[in-house]
Structures are given as C-alpha cells and as structure tokens.
Input
Amino acid sequence: MDLDLDGNTALVTASTSGLGKASATALVREGANVTVCGRTPERLERAREQISAAGPGSVLALEADITDADDLEWLVSTTVEEHGGIDHLVTSAGGVPPGSFLEMAEDDWYDAFELLVMSFVRTATLAHPHLADSDAGTIVAITSASVSEPIDNLVLSNSVRRAVHGLVKSMALELAPEIRVNSVLPSVLIEDIDAAIEDALADGDFDSREAVLDAWTADLPLEQVGDPARLGDMVAVLSSDRTNHTTGAAVPVDGGRIRG
Ligand SMILES: NC(=O)c1ccc[n+]([C@@H]2O[C@H](COP(=O)([O-])OP(=O)(O)OC[C@H]3O[C@@H](n4cnc5c(N)ncnc54)[C@H](OP(=O)(O)O)[C@@H]3O)[C@@H](O)[C@H]2O)c1
Output
C-alpha cells in the first residue's frame, strides 16, 4: 500500500531512539521529510544517519528539550524554514518515573505534566498554523496503553497521560475537518532488547533472561516483546490519507494488553 507521503514534512518530537525514531524512520521510508529532536548530540547524529538510510526523505536533526518552550519555538520555526512547512506532527516524549501514589512528591506531578502534557500543548499550538495550511494536516500523539488500562506502579503515566488522551479527543472535534488528530497506545515495544534485559538483570529484581521476558509479556496475549517499527508503521498509516476517515482514535500497539 502506497501511503502517498512523498514530499510531505513531519516533525517528530523526542525521536533519537525508540518510538519517536521508529516513527520518523517509517515516515522517511514512505518519502516524507522529517525533523527529529533530542537533548544528546551523539544520539542525534546517530539517529540522523540511521533514519536517513531508511528512505528518500531528508532528515533534519535538531538539539532541543521538549520541556523548554524556547526550544520548541526554535524547533518548529527551523523545521518550517528548512522543510517549507509542516504537514504531520508526531509527539513522543521521555518516560516519567515509575512509582506508586504515596511515593510521589508534588514536584513529580508538575514535572510529569510539563514533560507529557505541556510539551504536547506547546508543540501542537506552534505547529497548528502550518498544519492548517497543509492539505494533509495530521497529529499523532504517542501516549501509552496506560491511558486505557492502568499499569502497576506507574501512577504518573496512568493519570497524567490521560490529559493528552482527552486533548486528542477534544482537538479531533475542534480541528476537523482540516486536521486529523489521533493517538497510538504502546506497550512493551523495545528497540534494543538485549541491553534492556541486561539493565533489568543489573537492577537485581530478576535472576534470568527468561524471568525478565516472562514478566514483561505476562499481560500480553500475543506473548512477545514488540518491535518499535510496528508502532512506526501505525504512525505512518495514521499520518497518511489512507486513514482520512479516522480522527479522535486511540489505536493500541500493545500486544493485546488493553482488555476494555
Ligand atoms: N516503548 C514502549 O513500549 C512504551 C510503552 C508505553 C509508553 N511509552 C512511552 O512512549 C514514550 C517513548 O518511549 P520510548 O520507548 O521511545 O523511549 P526511549 O527509547 O527512552 O526514547 C525517548 C526519546 O526521547 C528523547 N527525550 C527524552 N526526554 C526528552 C526531552 N525532554 N526533550 C527532548 N527529547 C527527549 C530521548 O533522547 P535524549 O534523552 O537524548 O533527549 C530519546 O530519543 C515515552 O513517554 C514512554 O514512556 C513507551
């Protein structure tokens, strides 16, 4: 299926690894020009090389912190200057700390709100005039399966991310028919599985590779760790005109975790 993204421009936030990078990779493979961003110069350069190799689209890699309003302004204006506009916005973010309700300090809530909610609000506000000028305007927010089904010991993700879920629903109504707004709900999609397992073993909570994998996949009917590329494919499809009758949707890429 041709997604007809040739020559379109996508801005993908927090995209030097994982789900943001996989989304940028899929969009470049389909012919879009992309801007990616992150805070670490070496990761940016590596991501730029890897994403560029995926397809014909050109890749602009910009050092920016999505919790910094000035950085976001620069990210959007530089994208428009270099690529000539923005047709697709894809928002990813860093992760928020794990923990339970009683473990969280007041600042943890404000930090999570800045990272997950305000970064989305600010980027979408800045990108909006350019998306509205496009005849293909889309927003895809990468959130989490936790917005639909709470995950143990992830109270910040379970609660604060729901604001983005609500925004996607509201904005889908408000910005239609010019701009479509959807979200994807990931669970257990891991780029470098060996490194992730090493980290889990080093934390001391597991005594074998099998025990780690069993714990990660216990709630997933598909019984596997997912490839971030599958989420990238979903983002590319939701950004393309092939889904021009879909807005306000929250699409799981979660191995079947969400039951409801
Ligand atoms: N992977 C999953 O299965 C899964 C499941 C549920 C939810 N999620 C959520 O989806 C999002 C992406 O997950 P992931 O697996 O792709 O994570 P990841 O591999 O850790 O990637 C995070 C990316 O965001 C960048 N980043 C982090 N904080 C940033 C900031 N303040 N400003 C700019 N860039 C920033 C990181 O680069 P720098 O650190 O160099 O800036 C990196 O490129 C996270 O919010 C995560 O909690 C993921």
Notes: Helices lie at 18-29, 41-52, 69-83, 106-133, 155-175, 193-202, 209-217, 228-239. Residues 192-225 form one domain.
